[in-house]
Design brief:
The chain is an alpha+beta fold. The chain has three domains: 7-120, Butyryl-Coa Dehydrogenase, subunit A, domain 1; 122-232, Butyryl-CoA Dehydrogenase, subunit A, domain 2, CATH 2.40.110.10; 238-379, Butyryl-CoA Dehydrogenase, subunit A, domain 3 (Up-down Bundle), CATH 1.20.140.10. It has helices at residues 7-34, 39-48, 65-79, 81-101, 104-116, 231-267, 279-307, 313-338, 349-357, 366-379; strands at residues 121-124, 140-144, 147-158, 165-171, 181-187, 193-198, 209-220, 224-225, 269-270, 273-274. A four-stranded mixed beta sheet has the order 1-4-5-8. It is globular. The chain starts with 6 loop residues before the first helix and ends with a helix.
Length: 380
């Protein structure tokens, strides 16, 4: 398969790289240290059209496609992973869910605001007892006249305290298992929507992660996303897109680790010469560069298949599995190459190390990706 980028894609990649280096990189360390939401960075991304990457031009989006979106996310995450995860969730989960499953009325009502960056979108699936086992969620939705009333608590919700619209999954039939789950479009201004505890995280500290408390939130029937009882397959299909987004994030972090390591290996001298002259360091750099390129190609393959409308679930899991492990290995080696300096906050590899860790956990753990891939292989 040919992965040569088109001229438009190369221009997009270069523009995203220049933007990220000039606008995001200088702000990343401060946002991490303050553990404050990257609002300024998101506003800058809005001006670039990066909040409408998954939205068609008919609704005011930039309609970049999966490959174009992946290229942007790689460059953004190379400079600021907290901004990157916010863009990924907003585009790959919220906007994508509306584009694929929303009614005409829902698209017209919400997509222009999301694409323009007037509204920020979030996604609420996980709960205390349903992480990898998403089908065991207990948040309930009860029919009341023409409305649904939502009650329950969601956990690990990226920017749930900053969002304006959240895709919430709730149980509409207690006895139907995964066939009793429905997706709802919930506006955060509605009564009963209450962000809870903000998590104190190891990494991605410029992206808030919170509990969500839904206390008798009344949702109009017109805000059911897709069909009643069909929320679980909807969630699973969206996770394929989300995994391409997180794979893109991992590639960006890994690329940053590689570049920082090359720079340091050229500048740091020991025993009278740059440490890059030593075979042990050269081996680390060579392995890192090879794995980063392989992760990038796996990610672009999954994105390309999605753009072509072809099945891409296995490929998305392969990309997410390999890219996330690559990011973690690259971050570990980057700190090692920097030595004691890499263990301090004076160098960005310390932040990359912390940011990389979660890529093997969210949007399906490494263990879940292996399960998905193996099941696909055995079923074929």
């Amino acid at each position: 398969m040919d992965f040569d980028l088109t001229e438009d894609q190369r221009i997009l990649q270069e523009a995203a790289r220049e933007f990220a280096e000039n606008e995001l990189a200088p702000r990343a360390a401060a946002s991490d240290a303050a553990e404050g939401f990257v609002r300024e960075q998101i506003d800058l991304c809005k001006e670039m059209g990066f909040l409408g990457m998954a939205v068609s031009e008919a609704y005011g989006g930039s309609e970049l496609g999966a490959v174009g979106t992946s290229l942007v996310l790689m460059e953004v995450n190379r400079c600021c992973a907290s901004t990157g995860v916010t863009l990924s969730v907003h585009n790959s989960l919220t906007c994508e869910s509306l584009m694929r499953f929303g009614s005409d009325e829902q698209k017209q009502r919400y997509l222009p605001k999301l694409a323009a960056g007037e509204w920020l979108g979030a996604y609420a699936l996980s709960e205390a007892g349903s992480g990898s086992d998403a089908g065991s969620l207990v948040c309930k939705a009860t029919k009341d006249g023409d409305d649904w009333v939502l009650d329950g608590t969601k956990l690990w919700i990226s920017h749930g305290d900053q969002a304006d619209l959240v895709v919430v999954f709730a149980r509409t039939d207690a006895d139907a298992g995964t066939k009793g789950i429905t997706a709802f479009l919930v506006e955060t201004s509605w009564d009963g929507y209450k962000p809870g505890k903000k998590e104190k995280k190891m990494g991605l500290r410029g992206s808030s992660t919170v509990e969500l408390h839904l206390d008798h939130v009344r949702v109009p029937a017109g805000n059911v996303l897709g069909e009643v009882g069909r929320g679980f397959p909807l969630a699973l299909s969206l996770l394929d897109t989300g995994r391409i987004g997180i794979a893109s994030q991992a590639v960006g972090i890994a690329q940053a680790c590689l570049e920082a390591s090359i720079k340091y290996a050229r500048e740091r001298e020991q025993f009278g010469k740059p440490i890059g002259a030593f075979g042990a360091i050269q081996e680390k750099l060579a392995d890192m560069a090879t794995r980063v390129d392989a992760a990038r190609l796996l990610t672009l393959r999954a994105a390309s298949l999605k753009d072509q409308g072809k099945p891409h679930g296995r490929e998305a899991s392969m990309a997410k599995l390999f890219a996330s492990r690559t990011a973690n290995d690259a971050a570990k080696e980057a700190v090692q190459i920097h030595g004691g300096a890499g263990y301090t906050r004076d160098f960005p590899v310390e932040r990359y190390f912390r940011d990389a860790r979660v890529t093997e956990i969210y949007e399906g753990t490494t263990e879940i990706q292996r399960l998905v891939i193996a099941r696909s292989l055995l079923a074929s």
